[in-house]
């Protein structure tokens, strides 16, 4: 069974320290691997991991498929922005490599399709296209992506201002593209996960709501005393 098939109907836990907090003590492969293993013990079907060191550390402890990415640079295209980063994620042990597939210019001037081709030709990994819009999802599949995720909806200049998950984008992609569509981005409760699976999601990624004490604490304190966190 392919690693994407193994995720079917399951929850993927994203174990990543917040990108805007370089001092987060969770930024440590040892810590992330144990957070990941704990999530697997709890029933996670897969893991989403950032950075070659973390991917390697998680691979030593966990035997579920890893969606690996390498965040690099000031952005806006930061999730595995080049083919070189994608190959490095695969070499570290990612069975599936998540790659920014938005329409924005990439730092090396190449196309998303170039990364897909390189990954398929030089590694055994599959490619997950992280998109923010319907058109990007369709284009990513035309470019050869093995699966599409709604990861970047709400995180581009054209899609900002969204609070909860983008279930409309999810449903539109499920109806249109012939590859698995993974729900990702602000899924925080079991209701969110159920709604995504009901809408046809192949799997649902949950991140900060489980794996970031920093994010959770800020949110809780901000709720008690608005503006404090
Ligand atoms: C936009 C972006 O860069 N998202 C990243 C993708 O890898 C991660 O920072 C998130 O943790 C992950 O998507 C899970 O998200 P949430 O915490 O919403 O479940």
From TrEMBL:
<dbReference type="GO" id="GO:0005829">
    <property type="term" value="C:cytosol"/>
</dbReference>
<dbReference type="InterPro" id="IPR007260">
    <property type="entry name" value="NanE"/>
</dbReference>
<keyword id="KW-0119">Carbohydrate metabolism</keyword>
<protein>
    <recommendedName>
        <fullName>N-acylglucosamine-6-phosphate 2-epimerase</fullName>
        <ecNumber>5.1.3.9</ecNumber>
    </recommendedName>
</protein>
<comment type="function">
    <text>Converts N-acetylmannosamine-6-phosphate (ManNAc-6-P) to N-acetylglucosamine-6-phosphate (GlcNAc-6-P).</text>
</comment>
<dbReference type="InterPro" id="IPR011060">
    <property type="entry name" value="RibuloseP-bd_barrel"/>
</dbReference>
<comment type="similarity">
    <text>Belongs to the NanE family.</text>
</comment>
<dbReference type="InterPro" id="IPR013785">
    <property type="entry name" value="Aldolase_TIM"/>
</dbReference>
<keyword id="KW-0413">Isomerase</keyword>
<comment type="pathway">
    <text>Amino-sugar metabolism; N-acetylneuraminate degradation; D-fructose 6-phosphate from N-acetylneuraminate: step 3/5.</text>
</comment>
<dbReference type="GO" id="GO:0047465">
    <property type="term" value="F:N-acylglucosamine-6-phosphate 2-epimerase activity"/>
</dbReference>
<dbReference type="GO" id="GO:0006053">
    <property type="term" value="P:N-acetylmannosamine catabolic process"/>
</dbReference>
<dbReference type="Pfam" id="PF04131">
    <property type="entry name" value="NanE"/>
</dbReference>
<dbReference type="GO" id="GO:0019262">
    <property type="term" value="P:N-acetylneuraminate catabolic process"/>
</dbReference>
């Amino acid at each position: 069974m392919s690693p994407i098939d193994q995720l079917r109907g399951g929850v993927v836990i994203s174990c990543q320290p917040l990108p805007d907090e370089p001092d987060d003590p969770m930024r440590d492969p040892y810590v992330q691997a144990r957070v990941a293993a704990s999530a697997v013990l709890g029933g996670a079907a897969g893991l989403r991991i950032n950075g070659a060191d973390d991917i390697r550390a998680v691979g030593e402890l966990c035997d579920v498929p890893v969606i690996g990415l390498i965040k690099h640079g000031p952005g806006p295209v930061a999730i595995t922005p080049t083919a070189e980063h994608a190959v490095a994620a695969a070499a570290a042990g990612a069975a599936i490599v998540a790659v920014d597939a938005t329409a924005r210019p990439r730092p090396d001037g190449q196309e998303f399709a170039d990364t897909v081709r390189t990954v398929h030709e030089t590694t055994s990994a599959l490619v997950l296209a992280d998109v923010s819009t319907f058109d990007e999802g369709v284009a990513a599949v035309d470019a050869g992506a093995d699966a599409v995720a709604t990861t970047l909806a709400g995180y581009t200049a054209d899609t900002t201002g969204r609070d909860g998950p983008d279930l409309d984008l999810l449903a539109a992609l499920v109806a249109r593209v012939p590859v698995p569509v993974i729900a990702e981005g602000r899924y925080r409760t079991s209701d969110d996960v159920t709604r995504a699976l009901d809408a046809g999601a192949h799997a649902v990624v949950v991140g900060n709501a489980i794996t970031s004490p920093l994010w959770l604490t800020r949110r809780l304190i901000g709720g008690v005393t608005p503006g404090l966190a």
